[in-house]
Design goal:
This protein has 11 helices and 38 strands. It is of the alpha+beta class.
């Protein structure tokens, strides 16, 4: 790290600063603040801030660092750095700085949540809430000394669409609660597993991951694998286009409105179609829409739900939008002059890379203009343009162990922060035993690197996801949530339960306000030591009395309750045969009594133990949901 910094600074006569230290930054209040940068060896550097000046001399490696004393919240201020040159930083605030990390649900921007928060996005104006987006980068050879981009931005209607939705609602809640500036450093990457955020030192506890990380120090290997992945994908897509009679010389022939599709098959959408192993390739789907006279020539908005996998969408032969993979919603603007009175033809060219293609159920499929809506569900014409073998996914080098720590976390650890919020775990589902160790390792290693042994670390327990099940079954998602629950044994941690805000058909649920606000509530208790009810009920013990099991809880607040006023649901009970059945459950004081006529001698109870326990409704009276749990520790059956 020092060598990398020296090689950069040695050719510069001027003082330079890391990306984080710049205009609009938020510095952490009530703690010592590090200000650092690079200059010529033995160059005198001074920092002037709030009427005081601190001075140092650059070390032989070209790096200088100054420690500023604790400061109260306030601003805006100027901060000046002087060496052979002078740098003046404007609009600097002192307040609370939080690091927001994890994978896509932390990364997801407000733009993706617009259906829920359009008014919020149009009106948000918080000059004292600042965000810094850390650029995505991996590095396996050494910790990076600095970021390769990024700037501090305050929250306005112009900037908010690109800001983390969870981070925004978290910061807004704390800003309003404590009336201090709030800065959020967003350092998240979609799909990233926990081990990607661990340092080389921390990975020594996970030798297989450390060995894998060291493999990727070979630049030639990265180039070979990346080139092979790109070539394979390009060849597959070229073959798709070559075989597809509906797409020739860049022209979408089967998207033309006058095409005769009378001999095409019919499929009812939303839904999936085709046989496994035979459905890969490209499919064409067409639907004729009849519009009244007043729609002619008008602008409109097309929402084509969520498609598997990639689409190019046409209206009356003109391309109106495309999306390269299955997760984003398809939101396409229809320009003026394209719609006409009478028949209009909507066409989707859908690429299926690995499995059955489909329009995902329970998503909107509509054409909208002002208050008028045309439903696009129902019968569509469908024809396969080309059938291909599976396209194997690329090698996601950016997710390999250690890479994101070195590239995205290491450059930040001298910057004082209040604490961390974390939304991650989806990519570790199925590896819950390891996650019981790797997730606490992330917390402990980051605390060590920041020099904050009691650094608050607040995380989200995974939301409900995937299809519901009629009978109690084991669940990889439930086991990962249990590993997250176990992490509360680490001191100065808090967990926001999200078991009630998920969507069965979307790993990226839209309700990020509830998640952000629950993280902020947890932070009030863990980081600010406020006496608030910050968590939902957490199971603590059980007592068996004949056919009944009495469950005890902590964090019951002013009492246990049903979240929706309905009888308690999602409780399952088993005897020594370990066969779980649904149980009756009722609240008695601060306990829950569970039983089933099918189980004479109960030995274990599970609650919300499923991928998607969408009927889970145990809360405290403050409305915070209980975390899923099990009383047994039986292995998979």
């Amino acid at each position: 790290m020092l060598g990398a910094a020296f090689s950069c600074a040695a050719v510069q006569a001027e003082v330079t600063l890391p990306r984080l230290i710049g205009d609009g930054m938020v510095l952490q209040r009530d703690t010592e603040i590090q200000v650092w940068g690079w200059a010529d060896p033995e160059e005198t550097v001074s920092v002037h801030f709030q009427g005081f000046t601190w001075q140092t001399v650059t070390a032989d490696d070209g790096r200088w660092q100054l420690t500023l004393p604790e400061m109260k919240a306030g601003g805006p201020y100027e901060l000046t750095v002087k060496g052979e040159n002078t740098l003046t930083l404007e609009n600097v605030l002192v307040g609370d700085v939080w690091l927001a990390s994890g994978q896509s649900n932390m990364e997801l921007t407000m733009a993706r949540t617009k259906p829920l928060y359009a008014e919020e996005m149009a009106e948000a104006n918080y000059p004292e809430i600042r965000f810094f987006e850390v650029p995505d980068r991996y590095q396996f050879k050494h910790p990076e000394p600095d970021l390769d981009g990024g700037e501090w931005l305050s929250v306005t209607p112009e900037t908010l669409p690109g800001i983390s939705a969870v981070g925004y609602f978290f910061a807004k809640d704390l800003h309003q609660q404590y009336d201090v500036p709030v800065g959020v450093i967003n350092v998240a990457l979609g799909g990233s597993p926990a081990e990607a955020w661990l340092s080389e030192s921390a990975l020594k506890a996970f030798p297989h991951h450390l060995e894998e990380a060291k493999r990727w120090r070979d630049d030639d290997l990265i180039e070979q694998v990346s080139s092979a992945d790109n070539a394979r994908g390009q060849q597959w897509r070229e073959r798709r286009d070559e075989l597809d009679p509906g797409f020739k010389n860049g022209e979408a022939l089967w998207a033309q409105p006058d095409l005769d599709d009378s001999n095409w098959d019919t499929v009812t959408l939303p839904g999936f179609w085709g046989e496994e192993g035979e459905a890969n390739g490209v499919w064409w789907l067409r639907k004729t829409i009849t519009l009244p006279e007043d729609w002619a020539g008008e602008a409109a908005f097309l929402e084509v739900g969520r498609l598997v996998d990639a689409d190019v969408t046409y209206l009356n032969g003109e391309r109106v939008g495309q999306t390269g993979y299955q997760y984003p919603p398809r939101w396409y603007d229809i320009p003026e002059g394209l719609l006409k009175a009478g028949e209009n033809v909507l066409t989707v060219r859908l690429t299926s890379e690995n499995g059955r293609p489909g329009f995902v159920k329970d998503k909107p499929y509509e054409l909208r203009r002002e208050d008028e809506v045309v439903d696009l569900t129902g019968e569509w014409k469908v024809k396969q343009g080309a059938q291909l073998d599976n396209l194997d996914p690329p090698t996601f080098i950016r997710w390999k162990p250690m890479g994101l720590y070195n590239g995205m976390i290491a450059p930040l650890t001298d910057y004082a922060i209040k604490g961390v919020i974390w939304y991650q775990g989806e990519s570790n589902v199925g590896r819950e035993a390891e996650y019981n160790e790797s997730f606490p390792a992330v917390i402990q290693e980051w605390r060590r690197q920041w020099g904050q042994p009691d650094q608050p670390f607040i995380f989200v327990q995974l939301a409900n996801y995937l299809e519901t099940r009629d009978e109690p079954v084991d669940s990889d998602w439930a086991r990962l949530r249990e590993a997250q629950l176990n992490t509360l044994r680490v001191p100065h941690t808090g967990m926001a339960v999200a078991i009630d805000v998920g969507e069965w058909n979307d790993i990226h649920p839209l309700d990020k306000q509830t998640v952000g606000e629950r993280l902020a509530l947890a932070a009030q208790a863990v980081a600010y030591d406020d006496d608030v009810v910050a968590f939902g009920p957490i199971y603590t013990g059980m007592e068996v009395n004949g056919r009944q099991v009495r469950l005890s809880f902590e964090h019951t607040g002013s009492g246990l309750a049903s979240c929706n006023g309905e009888p308690l649901a999602e409780f399952a009970i088993a005897g020594e045969d370990r066969d779980f059945v649904w149980a009756d459950a009722r609240i008695e004081g601060d306990t829950v009594v569970v039983q089933s006529a099918e189980v004479r001698r109960p030995t274990a109870v599970r609650y919300a133990w499923a991928d998607n326990p969408d009927q889970a409704n145990l809360c405290n009276r403050e409305g915070l949901p209980a975390t899923p749990f099990r009383t047994d520790d039986w292995p998979r059956k």
